[in-house]
């Protein structure tokens, strides 16, 4: 099973989703993230993930060309206000609109929204 999380910058939401999925899903699930316009890993994303014991400090934002989109069983987009990347591939599409966080509290809200969705997906997969 392969899950690919996508957003624009691959700097916050999709990075948090990747970290959460790796922590919450079975080790047999391969998890990646990427963005259509990769930026720099957001320190606030690193901080709110550290609050719950998940270290994403070594994650590197990646572009769409750095991941195997065709191999993904699930492609999860996390964009809300901006235009999500549209990619070809046979994977099942899930859209989890999550507002782009701007302050520490909105990063925490985004983290919890994503965590709830990953936990629900985990129940569907088992």
Describe, in short, the structure shown:
This protein has helices spanning 13-24, 43-50, 104-125; strands at 2-7, 30-35, 74-77, 92-95.
Number of strands: 4
> What Rg, in angstroms, do the CA atoms define?
13 Å
Order of strands, widest sheet: 2-1-3-4
Structural class: alpha/beta
Task: Specify the CATH architecture.
Answer: 3-Layer(aba) Sandwich
What is the tally of helical segments? Answer: 3
Helix-strand pattern, N to C? EHEHEEH
The largest β sheet comes out as:
4 strands, parallel
Tally the structural domains: 1
Output the CATH topology: Rossmann fold
CATH class label: Alpha Beta
Q: Alpha-carbon distance between the termini?
A: 12 Å
Shape: globular
Mean pLDDT: 94
Tell me the helix content.
25-40%
Uncertain spans, ≥5 residues at pLDDT below 50? none
Textual characterization of the structure:
Helix 1 crosses helix 3 and helix 2 packs across helix 3 (104-125). Strands 2-1-3-4 form a four-stranded parallel sheet, with helices on one face. The protein has a single domain, classed as Response regulator (Rossmann fold), CATH 3.40.50. The protein is of the alpha/beta class and 126 residues long. 33% of the residues lie in helices and 16% in strands. The protein has three helices and four strands, in the order E-H-E-H-E-E-H. The model has no long low-confidence stretch (mean pLDDT 94).
